[in-house]
Amino acid sequence: MQRTIDAHIHLSERKDDALLTYAKNNGLRYSLSELMGLMRKNSVQRGLLLSPPLEDGRPLPNQQIIELCERSEGMLSPVVTVEPTKKEVAAALRTADENSEVKAFKIRLGYVRAAADSRVFDPVYDYAQAKGLPVLYHTGDTAFSTGDLRLSHPLSLDSVANRREELKIVLCHFGSPWFEDVAELIYKHPNAYADISGLTTGGGAYAKEFVGLLARKLSEAIYFAGGAEKILFGTDYPVTTYSDAFALVRLLQVDDSDKEMILWRNAKEVFRL
Ligand SMILES: [Zn+2]
């Protein structure tokens, strides 16, 4: 089987995890042992672990992400979530400083009341840039109807990328449904990347047609950007299952060498795994 790196995984062991509904819909137990079993079964050597949202809207505390990674026998690497207050920015940088395994930061655009270019994030960008750590952004559709799409729109990353050409930027979920905007961003900016995680969940009417539509949009984005070296595989477990995430990659109308880049080569380089 094709070797793979999953650049976008969530997990907690809490009853108030807001992603439990997705897990249930996908028939997943949503536990560390299940996740590690699925990764082994699907030849997924490494994964990046991100805080899921809790029912009160807050992300799982970073310390719990670090602890889950420590129990993963080297399969999971932590991503530190940064919320937009001075205090939380300082705490996130401290966590990254104390844990050399941290591979990236995450900013939850659309869920927090701050834009990507808000000055509150400047210390994170300075630090990430100095250490070569990418910053992941939630972009596009939000899991809850109260999300702010103006703040999660992928084009809001253009000003950050303009100001910080050394900062590695990853747009999560390919900015869905603004695939073309993301294609332009990854084409325009040498340091902008996008993951294809969490694009399908459950079934529903026209599920098969929808996957076909996604595959076409992503293939077009690859043609537009002139290659697949900026695109990263991810599931957004438990939002999308491994079988659905791999089915999407299989449908892409690109060369096998591009699929290999998407599945692991790009992530290995971007996250220095
Ligand atoms: Zn996610």
Architecture overview:
The protein has 273 residues and is α/β, with parallel strands linked by helices. It has a single domain (4-270), classed as TIM Barrel, CATH 3.20.20. The chain contains 11 helices and 8 strands. It has helices at residues 20-25, 32-41, 62-70, 86-98, 122-131, 149-152, 158-163, 179-188, 207-225, 242-251, 256-270; strands at 4-10, 44-50, 76-82, 104-107, 135-138, 169-172, 192-195, 231-232. An 8-stranded parallel β-sheet has the order 1-2-3-4-5-6-7-8. α8 (179-188) links the parallel β6 and β7 (192-195). α8 (179-188) packs parallel to α9 (207-225). The chain starts with a strand and ends with a helix. Zinc ion binds at residues 8, 10, 50, 198, 236.
> What is the overall pLDDT average?
96
CATH structural class: Alpha Beta
Low-confidence stretches: none
How many domains in all? 1
At the third CATH level, what is the topology name?
A: TIM Barrel
* Share of residues in strands: 5-15%
Radius of gyration: 17 Å
Strand neighbour order, sheet with most strands = 1-2-3-4-5-6-7-8
Tell me the name of the CATH homologous superfamily: Metal-dependent hydrolases
Structural class: alpha/beta
Counting DSSP H or I runs of 4 or more residues, the number of helices is 11
Q: What is the element string, with H for helices and E for strands?
A: EHHEHEHEHEHHEHEHEHH
Globally, the shape reads globular
Largest sheet: 8 strands, parallel
Question: Would you identify the CATH architecture?
Answer: Alpha-Beta Barrel
Name every ligand kind in the structure. zinc ion
Terminal Cα span: 20 Å
What level of helicity do the residues show?
40-55%
Let me know the number of strands.
8
